[in-house]
Write a structure and sequence with these properties.
The structure is a homodimer. Chain A is α/β, with parallel strands linked by helices and about 550 residues long. Helices cover about 40% and strands about 10% of the residues of chain A. In chain A, the strands form 2 sheets. Chain A has an 11-stranded mixed beta sheet with strand order 1-3-2-6-8-7-12-13-11-9-10, sandwiched between helices. In chain A, strands 4-5 form a two-stranded antiparallel sheet. In chain A, helix 13 links the parallel strand 9 and strand 10. Chains A, B: This is amidase. Chains A, B: InterPro entries: Amidase_CS, Amidase_dom, AS_sf.
Amino acid sequence: MGYREIARGKQEQRRQRISKDWILAREHLASSNLLKVPEVCGILTGRELEITGKYDAVGLVEKIANGSFSAREVTLAFCKRAAIAQQLTNCLTEIFFEDAIQRAEELDRERAANPGTPLRPFHGLPISLKDSFKIPGYDSVIGMTCFANDPDQTYSPLAQLLLDAGAVLYCKTNVPQTMMTADSDNNVFGRTLNPTNINVTAGGSSGGEGALIAMRGSILGVGTDIAGSVRIPSHCNGIYGLRTSVGLVPMAGQKDPVAPGTDGVAPIAGPMATSLRACEHFMKTVAKSSAWKYDESCLHLNRWDTRPKHTNIRIGVAYNDGMFTPWPPVRRSMQQAVSKLRSAGIEMVDLKMPDLHEAVSTTYRMYSLDGCRFVQNLIKQGEEPEVESVKRTNLAAIPSATLDDFFALNAARSKVKEDFQKFWLDHELDALLCPPAATTATPLDEWKCITYTMLWNLLDYPALIIPIGKVTDQDVVDGVENAIFGEEDQQNYKLYTGPEDFKNVPTTTQLIGMRQEDDRLMGVAKMVDEALHSQSGPSKP
Amino acid sequence: MGYREIARGKQEQRRQRISKDWILAREHLASSNLLKVPEVCGILTGRELEITGKYDAVGLVEKIANGSFSAREVTLAFCKRAAIAQQLTNCLTEIFFEDAIQRAEELDRERAANPGTPLRPFHGLPISLKDSFKIPGYDSVIGMTCFANDPDQTYSPLAQLLLDAGAVLYCKTNVPQTMMTADSDNNVFGRTLNPTNINVTAGGSSGGEGALIAMRGSILGVGTDIAGSVRIPSHCNGIYGLRTSVGLVPMAGQKDPVAPGTDGVAPIAGPMATSLRACEHFMKTVAKSSAWKYDESCLHLNRWDTRPKHTNIRIGVAYNDGMFTPWPPVRRSMQQAVSKLRSAGIEMVDLKMPDLHEAVSTTYRMYSLDGCRFVQNLIKQGEEPEVESVKRTNLAAIPSATLDDFFALNAARSKVKEDFQKFWLDHELDALLCPPAATTATPLDEWKCITYTMLWNLLDYPALIIPIGKVTDQDVVDGVENAIFGEEDQQNYKLYTGPEDFKNVPTTTQLIGMRQEDDRLMGVAKMVDEALHSQSGPSKP
């Protein structure tokens, strides 16, 4: 079977798993405001619109807990809304709505049978997962034809943990071919669209999650991030997303586009959600579940203490990373954010980032130790062409490293980490605020700017995306001479063509904490989030 | 300069740093009981014998704190006793007694000037360090001629941490050439002898520490351990020693016999001491010092909670590791220990260890990823021959690995770790008791049996040596047919030639805890140590 046929088969299978009653009328598919379609298409009842539209994950768990909603009706509502999101943005890969509804019914029965038993932290909450997480009986294609029609046998450890915490799993979400680009486009399932504006990328590699959550087809999902794969789609779709420290959230047992045992920069799993407190609830639940019992590589930390270290917190601000000049809307929203935070009485310290060229080149080389041979072989096995965003990475030209090179890279990374920690301690930071990228969501296949996200992967610092607003009419194009970091920066800067082309595209900010202190970062983030959204804002729970 | 001349120079320099008044009379050098010499040689005053002989590190810190002893007199006493230990066992490398006494005087003055200020946790306590730790102005030869006469510029992070905690640093201790064998013998400083019986090895690579502490020339020192280098000399010399979990104690910034950035099995730094509570005090002090501020690779754990997880603790017992048959004294002391622990009401569960062949071969290959080329080059640079124990490792025959091999080894290790964790959880263990080796201290250059120690390095589980007693007349030789694990096992078994040859040689046991739960292991160890030494025993504080 050729790759096109395989794709047709997989897409047909996916379509079959959506009830006929949930198929959108043609007019809605062509809507100019995809985010509004769930409310106007008539597929969800008023109560289902309330369930999916009014609460964040914590609020919804509370509503289930107090008996306002059953697990079944919550699950059904999200299955419907996810089905709509799928039709509009192509965000899903595997659909298992029927299993989910069965599971929800079991949870309802369990609860009815044991009314005195305290509910688990995710009791009845539908949680979506990036395609790389394994669910028995379903594929983990991760954008590669060669993995189609090869159902998994076991749950990934994190999926198991979430089930043990009472969650309902109902769908998996789309990624790029190779999982290595920021455009969630592949030959099996096609491209995920950004529901805020279909002319810009939904981001990647957890782009399906980004689009699904922006559509509120999910209010809490899990992505993975080795260079920005949780944060870029969170940024592009205007949701919360956390790049967790390595070893806090089980990452083991996923389908992988690299050889087993690959070292270098470690990928992490992290929450993506419609609220900050949903991310916190996720992290706390994982911490309290002894994550290491699910994935032996997890730290025996078990701590969840969000109290900041100081009463008067101090946040550094880096307006750029010295590699890419922020676009006008990014600049403007950073300035507004900082001024709001200052008004809220938080000490904000303008900083110049240390020179990152060494860090960036070390990181790039660590991403491709095997010269990306493993993933190229996967593409070859699938007898499929590279999609555009993969083509642009020019995989064949990436050199491989020797073991000695790898050791030298380890040593270089240690130096970068030492220097950066010194920078952090010298400035007595509780957190650092910087853009998640120089850009908003870019035109399709044009994402170049991963320096703002990948630095925190190299350093292993937790980094959180907090939505701010969107591109506004103030964000007029300015001259390319404002891009001061060289040729590549100018190319990137020119991609911004003004507020008309980027209508409704989200703006966000990135808040970074100290390594393995994700709990403390969350404590600071609560203050920041509150200050940013005190008067208005799209993202209050 | 040839290597012999360099050695003469270094040894002469070392001799110069011992006051003439502290030189032992010839008769004492030939004593048949080295451990007694400090008490009978007349160099230490009665008060100095009390200071060095009567307390463990915690007790001594208390005595300094309550004003019974000044930091200066404590330091002077240990300098004297270390000088004696050096003359008897050749355990020291760099000596900086004068700096130490100055430092102690400063501490005394500081205290007198600020009588109300609480003392730091190591105020005035002399702590000895393995030769690999750097002290400005002194060499870190680590047994390699090429590193002689090249004084360091900075403190190793852990040395700095200890100073910040009030410690007095006064000497560094001997190691094997390459730091990769269990015999602390090299061309620069020669061989360290075991003060319990000079016919058996002092162990290694932290063998100088082992001998020095057995002599009570130190009551708390720091070794490092990648395969057993803290535990083997602790075992051979009958002291406490902890292989800490990776990332708890700063390991960075030491002189290293491998290339910067070398990966594989990570070495750790850990305490060696005359008491369990000294090891605990060390670990707690490091934890409370935010170790990561000294060494960015340390975990942001900061936890020190020795409460066991269960009220009724449950300890697994593995009498052998399925690779090497324990010698008669090892067998006997394990049995006696288990029976004592059972009498004390601790639940002891006899277990058969999982098959370790895969783990052992993975570990060996991870130790020598570069085919030991780096260390061979160091030997070449020093234009020196290999010492006997290094010769026996046959460095030149060790193959190097490719990056793909390394990834495959990582994957193999993950599997071993998963399997072992399952074993641990299935048996609901709070700790595991097993011998530190199939042997006691062996005849010189004969140490083969690192499987009992290195497994915990591969798995990254904390492992503690607890002294039990010594070889007794009951420990008669038995037939080699009792060694049931093959040829190599039989060779090893035959090395035991009966209690006469192994007179006074210590027996110990090894208590293992769950990864990164060194604090909890210490909690269990307290109960074990108490039970083992409730009636008698050499090692009560």
